[in-house]
Amino acid sequence: MLDSLLASVRDHSRQFTVYRGDEQTDLETQFAAHSVEIAHRQLPPHGPEPFVIIEEDGEFAGTVPVARLERLLEPPVVRPPEPDDVSEGYRVLFELLDETVFTAMERRQLLAVSREIEERAFRTGAGTLRVGFQTLSAFEPQVEVYRTLATDTALDIHIYAVDDWSPPHISGVTYYDYAENTHERYWVLAFDGGGDESRACGLVAQQRGDEYDGFWSDDPAVVADITAALTDE
């Protein structure tokens, strides 16, 4: 089911139109890993600072200054010790690239996306957070993060992975074994919003060697599909 979800999102289109003067931008390179079309338009001399117009399936979706967008494209390498230390800017990037298929994304970049989903769940403080860690040994470095999520909130947390390590008991956290290894290639998160659909969000990333292809979404229906794929295991 995760395979079909990823295939369906590939049909989703988004275009960024960059309005700038003679200065060059790195947006083409920076967005090469996403299913985003980039177009350019010339600004008149002494016009406004460069900006980007975002269109989704042909409809206007918003604008953002080029300088801010370029700063957002390099996510933090080190995970903050507290879930509420996520930058507001990275949340903006999460929204801009919602349901665009990314390719060749590195593990550190996926950690930044995962951080936003975990932080949204933490801020909500209730609901169900489901996470596919591929293997339980991959969960080991995140144990203290999830201990904080479980003990400082009323979240119901479900961890799915191949059973290759014995995790500690954490109240509020339930573990599930991928007995058939069906989803071992996938890094997955799904937060149901805790009763508020506007807070629902999810991530599906398929491992290909040392890199990942996939998408993230804050569409409650897509998050429900991600949840169904995990719970069907």
Descriptive notes:
- The chain has 233 residues and is α/β, with parallel strands linked by helices.
- It has one domain (2-231).
- It has 8 helices and 11 strands.
- A 7-stranded mixed sheet has the order 5-11-10-9-6-7-8, sandwiched between helices. Strands 2-1-3-4 form a 4-stranded mixed sheet.
- A hairpin with a 2-residue loop joins strand 3 (51-56) and strand 4 (59-65).
- The longest helix is centred in the middle third of the chain and has 18 residues, at 107-124.
- The radius of gyration is 18 Å and the shape is elongated.
- It starts with a helix and ends with a helix.
- The model is unreliable at 75-90 (pLDDT under 50).
Which key features would you list for this structure?
seven-stranded mixed sheet, four-stranded mixed sheet
Helix and strand arrangement:
Elements: H1 2-9, E1 14-20, H2 27-30, E2 36-42, E3 51-56, E4 59-65, H3 66-72, H4 88-96, E5 102-105, H5 107-124, E6 128-135, H6 136-139, H7 143-151, E7 156-162, E8 173-177, E9 186-191, E10 201-208, E11 211-217, H8 220-231
Q: Report, as a whole number of angstroms, the end-to-end distance.
A: 10 Å
Characterize the overall form.
Answer: elongated
| Count of discrete alpha- or pi-helical segments spanning 4 or more residues | 8
Poorly predicted runs of 5 or more residues? 75-90
Number of beta-strand segments: 11
Structural class: alpha/beta
